[in-house]
Amino acid sequence: MAPRIRRFTLPELARGYRGDLGDEYIELLHFRDFDAPLAADDARLEECRFSYVQIESVRNARLIQCELEQAGAPALQAAGVFLNDVRVNHSRFGSADFAEAQLDGVVFENCKFGWLNLRGATVRDVLFRNCQFEEIDLGGRIQRLGFADSRAGQINCHGAQLREVDLQGLDFADVEGVDGLRGAQISSLQLGLLGEAMASHLGIKLGS
């Protein structure tokens, strides 16, 4: 059930400049320390690193064997993005919209999200380690998703299609759409926390 994460090591990278992000194909560049937000819509990036930058938009882009460290945005526009073997570390996003995106072999570590939107996304082999969320929308096709030492205020499971999803490492306060949890693994403690929501969904009245 654990996500299958493939290891990779980036080679030596040249300095990347804002103008480089206008190219359709970008490889072996390190984008670092930009004052203004960056955008790379529709670009293909291979073996690149982003550090100490604000990323505004990567809609319909393809990121393959890339690293993001100390990156972030008040509102990341990433609808339709394709992430394959990507690592995101020590980053913060007010919202991260991955609607209709594809995430395969992605690790988020020490990251904070206001709202993470995976509605309509195809997610496979993704791990969140030591991450915090205000809300997660899991309404996509999700396989082998795992959490470790992470916390969320609310999980929205309406329309979720879960397969081999392990939520035991996610401390959450509330779940919307408990019927969408089919295919997930939870702990006995989490089951107790879900009792009231599940009873309400099934039309069961709780006595005093």
Task: Describe this entry's structure for a reader.
The chain has 208 residues and is mostly beta strands. The protein has one domain (56-202): 3 Solenoid (Pectate Lyase C-like), CATH 2.160.20. It is built from 1 helix and 20 strands. The longest helix is centred in the C-terminal third of the chain and has 15 residues, at 188-202.
Question: What keywords describe this structure?
Answer:
mainly beta, 18-stranded parallel sheet, single chain, 20 strands, Pectate Lyase C-like, two-stranded parallel ribbon, 208 residues
List the helices and strands and how they pair.
Layout: E1 14-15, E2 25-27, E3 29-32, E4 38-39, E5 44-46, E6 49-57, E7 62-73, E8 76-77, E9 82-89, E10 92-97, E11 102-109, E12 112-117, E13 122-129, E14 132-137, E15 141-148, E16 150-156, E17 161-163, E18 165-166, E19 170-176, E20 184-185, H1 188-202
Parallel strand pairs: 1-3, 2-5, 3-6, 4-6, 5-7, 6-7, 7-9, 7-10, 8-10, 9-11, 10-12, 11-13, 12-14, 13-15, 14-16, 15-17, 16-19, 18-20
